[in-house]
Design goal:
Blueprint lengths: L18 H17 L1 H4 L12 E6 L12 E6 L2 E6 L5 E6 L3 E7 L17 E6 L4 E3 L40 H34 L6 H19 L3 H29 L4 H23 L13 E4 L2 E4 H23 L1 H11 L1 H6 L4 H26 L7 H16 L4 H17 L9 H15 L13
Parallel strand pairs: 1-7
Antiparallel strand pairs: 1-4, 2-3, 2-5, 5-6, 8-9
Helix pairs in contact: 1-7, 3-7, 3-8, 3-10, 3-11, 3-12, 4-5, 4-6, 4-10, 4-11, 5-10, 7-8, 7-10, 8-10, 11-12, 11-13, 12-13
Length: 469
């Protein structure tokens, strides 16, 4: 007996597989392969470990060029040693005994015509611990009495993180006021792009399911920690560790939807109860990260990236590559949503799930794709944010979660392009706020902007006004 094949009209129509999403990941992989190996795979001159500490520094002329051939004497518990700056103006010395070290600059070896910004400071004294690195900086330029150059740099652990510039980089002396505004604005653009990677996924999840996921920040942390594990513990190149983090991050989204969110939707559990589940999941993941990796800071890479000057702005090569990757990926997401069948189905489900289902769109398939894509984007955002902050911690995602929600709300709930616009605003405002308030309070300025904008335009920048009644 032969069973009749189902007629075409009886087959359930599903959206085409998200080929564009996988093509996007492939393109990102190719970009990482070409962009990062030089900085990631190169063997560092000094790598901190439990038996080694690194003394580092960079010497630059007043015009911003590398100061080559400058000699420095490092005096410590094991005696003295002389180091010389290389063609990039950098010097590095590995030491194997903790204690107090004094770095003396030989002013006779400075390039012709160069002087110290503070001629009275020709030595630095640092307290060094093993498994750490510390920078001793000597600023060159016109002598100044402001005292900027006399500030002694503090030693930094290899797992320390900061939003400041690379500790081995010195900025040439130019107009500080104008330069600082331009520098903070550029930092805000980069931070906004990295924030957008996570916020777009959060917005898509809200648009297709109505769920505000408080555990999305932990997906960001997961990406950064996976990259740390890949580079520091497994020994993978940075590009390979980043790809693995993205793949695993996307897989966790698929597993979450399969094991938690899809069953809750089938049981018609309310969104408030689902949101409480995300809060519990967030807390569980945070303490899981802390249990396995401790409460300290984890550096994905321990080498310092070379600085690049663009007008009055100085950024590391690593930061510029991260910004470029974010732009390419966000552009790819926009093209996916606008020009692919699955992307159009995603926007239809976000606008009206019931109408999309009545039109033959597989809503559950779209939601599954969104969860995979959103968590993969969050993992990528975590990797790049960890590189931008120079380290990650067990609660990094929780720290920026409010900024992600602020970006999504400011741009317009449920709209991917609104999340991008909101992220750029939040990123710029949070960095520029440090010009007028302490850096620890810079995120408060971004949240204040959110409140003011919502008082004027409650639906957000690109959101639509809902009709009531």
């Amino acid at each position: 007996m032969h069973l009749a094949a189902p007629q075409p009209s009886q087959r359930r129509r599903r959206p085409a597989p998200s080929r564009a999403l996988w093509l996007l990941i492939t393109a990102f992989a190719a970009l990482l392969v070409t962009a990062l190996p030089a900085s990631a795979a190169a063997e560092p001159a000094c790598s901190p470990d439990p038996e080694t500490a690194c003394l580092i520094g960079t010497m630059r002329t007043a015009a911003g060029d590398p100061a080559v051939g400058v000699q420095l004497e490092v005096v410590g518990p094991d005696g003295s040693e002389t180091v010389t700056t290389g063609d990039d103006g950098r010097w590095v010395l590995a030491v194997h005994t903790a204690g107090e070290y004094t770095v003396n600059l030989d002013v006779e070896t400075l390039p012709a015509g160069e002087t110290l910004r503070d001629p009275t400071v020709t030595s630095r004294t640092l307290t060094i611990e093993l498994n750490s690195q510390a920078g001793a900086l000597f600023a060159l330029g016109e002598p100044t009495s402001s005292g900027d150059a006399t500030a002694e740099p503090s030693s930094a652990s290899p797992s320390d993180t900061s939003t400041d510039s690379d500790p081995t980089t010195e900025t040439p002396s130019t107009s500080p006021g104008t330069n600082r505004v331009a520098q903070q604005f550029a930092n805000g653009l980069v931070f906004g792009l990295l924030l957008a990677l996570a916020s777009v996924g959060l917005s898509l999840v809200y648009g297709t399911t109505g769920l505000s996921s408080f555990s999305h920040g932990e997906q960001v942390t997961l990406g950064a920690i996976l990259a740390y594990v890949g580079v520091q513990l497994v020994g993978l190149p940075l590009w390979a560790a980043a790809l693995a983090a993205i793949a695993i991050g996307g897989a966790t989204g698929w597993l979450q939807n399969l094991g938690i969110w899809a069953p809750l939707r089938r049981r018609r559990v309310g969104l408030t109860q689902q949101m409480i589940v995300t809060i519990g999941l967030s807390m569980a993941l945070q303490y899981l990260f802390q249990f396995f990796f401790g409460g300290g800071r984890l550096r994905i890479v321990t080498t310092s990236s070379s600085p690049v000057r663009i007008g009055p702005v100085v950024m590391s090569v690593q930061t510029l590559i991260s910004a470029g990757i974010a732009i390419v990926v966000l552009a790819g997401v926009a093209m996916f949503l606008m020009y692919t069948r699955t992307g159009r189905a995603t926007r239809a489900v976000s606008d009206n799930p019931a109408l999309a289902a009545a039109s033959g769109i597989g809503v559950e398939s779209v939601i599954r794709t969104v969860w995979v894509g959103a968590t993969a984007l969050a993992a990528l955002g975590g990797v790049l944010t960890g590189l931008y902050f120079q380290a990650t911690t067990w609660n990094m995602g929780g720290t920026i979660l409010l900024l992600m929600f602020a970006a999504v709300t400011l741009g317009g709930l449920g709209t991917a392009f609104g999340a991008l616009a909101g992220s750029m605003v939040i990123g710029i405002v949070s960095e520029m706020a440090s010009l007028v308030m302490p850096s620890d309070m810079r995120f408060a300025g971004a949240l204040l902007i959110l409140i003011l904008v919502l008082l004027i335009r409650p639906q957000g920048i690109l959101g639509r006004r809902d009709r009531i009644g």
